[in-house]
Design a protein that fits this description.
The structure holds two protein chains of two kinds. By secondary structure, chain A is an alpha/beta fold. Helices cover 43% and strands 11% of the residues of chain A. By secondary structure, chain B is mainly alpha-helical. Chain B has two domains: 112 residues, GMP Synthetase, Chain A, domain 3 (2-Layer Sandwich), CATH 3.30.300.130; 106 residues, no CATH class. Chain B is built from nine helices and five strands; from the N terminus they run H-E-E-E-E-H-E-H-H-H-H-H-H-H. In chain B, the strands form two sheets. Chain B has a three-stranded mixed beta sheet. In chain B, helix 5 runs antiparallel to helix 8 and helix 5 packs across helix 9. Classes of the chains: A alpha/beta, B mainly alpha. Chains A and B meet through helix 1, helix 8 and helix 10 of A and helix 5 and helix 9 of B.
């Protein structure tokens, strides 16, 4: 819960968090080191100075730290935890569904655990979706279209194999497809940044939601153009949020673009924990106001009502969270 | 360093200042990508450069390496140019490919993918054109030009217009340069402001046109801000890890 300076209490969902292990002992090769170094650079570049962690802590943090940063010191009520396997870089994987399950099973009222699939695995991808549903009851997946795999330089959401996965997801009630379209892991081919495949998949699977994480950055303009046409395309604000601190005017322009094109009902707040921590992000976002010239040019405003939706109500709608019931449970200290 | 070597190094840097990061549309020199220039007695030039992270897109790295090579090779005294990308996941492929004059696809063993960079170059030239046009239009609006006048303005009139702000003058120079590159040479009576496809603007659609340009610019600037932040962190880390050495 976030309590505003006026005493109002808000329900907060952090829609994009991780519980990773990138410690040197788990790094398989130089890529493992370079990958976490790159994350740490994002963290250092865009966090306020007092929020910057030591590198060692950033490489591996324990469950207690995460729970405290999100729910005790931080204002988050519920968090969605997204996996990133990266088994080619990390011996045990970077942040797998299995690793994440350790923390989510200890705090079932706080976390929503998501899975992942890679359609290039063919039949094994389908078996894996079944297994994740059975083991964890997942309702969403995180997808990395730019990930390299052997000779493959990535895949597209409208590949035939991907469609088979979507068909299965729909059948099993896994409805939220969080698609990573933003700063990529190993982008090489020109398609790595491209987000036009979202358009095809979203049209062909109207019963699935496609949450474009990092709003397509650096192809924000392409993403907006797609999102305005597809009712089931959403924007995830991980990576966007911390620009409030580093470049507030740009942040205002980006949010105005998103409000104009995507709309206030389809944007979700996220810290991308542990790249950033939610406490300062939520505080700063609540007090953030769009400059008048930007409001006028785009004809949008970031009102308190809009902020409440972005901070929690929109993600709650995506995951069918009964907000009143969740508040009653979590705010009375009854939840775990 | 001899006077000649110093002069030649300055000439090389001036050439590099014309090379832009395709995505950010800013000179590689101003972005801090150029780490060092070495000029050999025989006219051989080595260029060390690096990008904000180990993972920065290899295709953009390749374009910049090619553009640096070609810009510096145009100097009359230059006999060879070797761009050397440092600390990057694909440094070997990029450096070997550019040195051997391979196209991007061949350098990465992706036969038949030769047009990848050509298409990407066109896309980003259009974006750069749009971004520069927006900057100039906003500068002119701030200097009290009205949309109807801007839509009707000819290229000759724009070239002859004295602008009050130094930033406006820079915007004008940058826009005219990119207009010529994207649309080719145009007569003085051609419209100053056109769409990326070369079509004239109309007054009724002016506001909408400006908003479209803003969308393109916001995406590009946002990424630029991220890149600069990452580069600053990398510089700080590098400074901490490598104690200063004697030259």
């Amino acid at each position: 819960m976030y309590r505003t300076s006026d005493g109002e209490e808000l329900f907060v969902v952090d829609a994009h968090t991780h519980f990773w292990n990138a410690a040197p002992a788990n790094q398989r090769n130089i890529h493992g080191k370079q990958f976490i170094d790159c994350f740490y650079a994002y963290h250092s570049a865009l966090s306020p100075e007092q929020e910057v962690w030591p590198q060692e802590k950033f490489e591996k943090y324990d469950a207690e730290t995460m729970v405290r940063d999100l729910f005790v010191d931080g204002p988050v009520d519920m968090a969605i935890i997204q996996p990133t396997y990266l088994k080619e870089f990390y011996i045990e994987g970077f942040n797998t569904t299995e690793q994440n399950a350790v923390i989510t099973e200890a705090h079932p009222d706080r976390f929503i655990l998501n899975g992942s699939f890679d359609p290039r695995e063919g039949t094994a991808a389908l078996e894996n979706i079944h297994a994740l549903k059975e083991a964890y009851g997942i309702r969403g997946v995180k997808l990395y279209t730019a990930e390299w795999r052997g000779a493959s330089r990535g895949w597209r959401l409208n590949d035939t194999e991907a469609y088979r996965c979507f068909e299965l997801c729909e059948k099993l009630g896994i409805t939220n497809m969080h698609v990573h379209k933003g700063p990529t892991i190993t982008p090489l081919a020109k398609d790595a940044f491209d987000c036009h495949d979202v358009d095809y998949a979203a049209t062909d699977f109207p019963n699935l939601n496609f949450i474009v994480e990092h709003v397509g950055l650096p192809r924000l303009d392409d993403f907006c153009w797609i999102a305005v046409q597809e009712a089931n395309v959403w924007g995830g604000l991980a990576v966007v949020m911390p620009f409030m601190h580093a470049r507030p005017r740009y942040f205002a322009e980006v949010i105005a673009e998103l409000l104009f094109w995507v709309g206030e009902d389809k944007l979700t707040f996220a810290s991308d924990y542990a790249i950033w921590t939610p406490k300062w992000l939520v505080e700063k976002f609540w007090s953030f106001e769009l400059p008048d010239d930007i409001k006028q040019e785009r004809g949008v405003d970031l009102t308190p009502e809009v902020k409440k939706k972005i901070l929690g109500l929109n993600a709650a709608a995506l995951y069918d969270i009964d907000v009143d019931a969740a508040k009653a449970k979590l705010w009375n200290g009854a939840g775990s | 360093m001899s006077t000649q070597a110093a002069e030649r190094e300055a000439e090389v840097l001036a050439c590099l200042a014309t090379v832009t990061d395709p995505e950010l549309d800013e000179p590689v020199t101003e972005l801090g990508f150029v780490e060092g220039v070495t000029v050999g007695a025989g006219g051989a030039v080595t260029l060390d450069f690096r990008l904000p992270t180990f993972w920065c897109a290899a295709n953009f790295a390749y374009m910049m390496a090619e553009d640096m090579r070609d810009a510096v090779a145009a100097l009359p005294w230059v006999t060879a140019v070797t761009p050397r990308l440092q600390a990057h996941m694909c440094a070997d492929e990029v450096n070997r490919g550019v040195a051997e004059g391979l196209d991007f696809g061949a350098a990465f063993g992706e036969a038949g993918d030769d047009d990848t960079l050509a298409d990407l170059r066109t896309t980003f030239r259009r974006k750069a054109f749009q971004r520069r046009q927006e900057a100039l239009l906003r500068a002119l609006l701030a200097e009290d030009f009205i949309p109807a006048a801007l839509v009707a303005m000819t290229l000759g009139a724009l070239e002859g217009t004295a602008l009050a702000g130094t930033d406006s003058a820079r915007c004008k120079r940058r826009y005219l340069e990119m207009r010529a590159r994207l649309c080719g040479p145009a007569a003085p009576e051609a419209p100053a402001f056109v769409t990326p496809g070369g079509e004239p603007l109309d007054a009724a659609g002016f506001d909408e046109h400006l908003r479209t340009l803003a969308s393109v610019r916001i995406a590009m600037e946002f990424n630029g801000a991220l890149c600069r932040g990452l580069l600053a962190v990398r510089d700080r880390a590098g400074a901490a890890a490598e104690p200063a050495r004697k030259p």
